[in-house]
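Hi V.,

Quick status before I head out on leave. The structure for the redesign project is tokenized and pasted below; the design run finished overnight.
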């Protein structure tokens, strides 16, 4: 496959470990926003370094926006899904529904609303 192929480049980006789970955790937050510490707590085994790296990548791609509140200590960083990020959630939901229909036997996860899904 050609390295410059849009599908190839997109798959390489989206299949980096934690990327899709970070997007889903942001989707679950009020107004699709979560603080860095909330993301870290909800994702369990992710390291701070990897979470920071993935969030920077998502921000660079326009999938999330970052807001920093330096008026208090510690400084708070909040991340919000953009319109592009919200559309990506629809793609993830489509993959989930395909998996439930054809490949993955996951009875507890039969719902389509990922905002209430407990990963």
């Amino acid at each position: 496959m050609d390295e410059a192929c849009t599908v190839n480049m997109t798959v390489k980006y989206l299949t980096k470990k934690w990327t899709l789970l970070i997007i889903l955790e942001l989707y679950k937050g009020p107004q699709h926003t979560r603080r860095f510490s909330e993301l870290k707590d909800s994702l369990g085994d992710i390291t701070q370094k990897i979470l920071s790296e993935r969030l920077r990548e998502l921000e660079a791609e326009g999938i999330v926006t970052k807001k920093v509140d330096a008026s208090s200590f510690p400084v708070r960083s909040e991340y919000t899904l953009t319109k592009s990020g919200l559309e990506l959630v629809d793609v993830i939901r489509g993959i989930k529904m395909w998996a439930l229909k054809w490949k993955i036997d996951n009875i507890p996860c039969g719902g389509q609303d990922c905002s209430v899904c407990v990963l």
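Above is the designed sequence. Residues 83-103 form the longest helix (21 residues).

G. will cover questions while I'm gone.

Best,
W.
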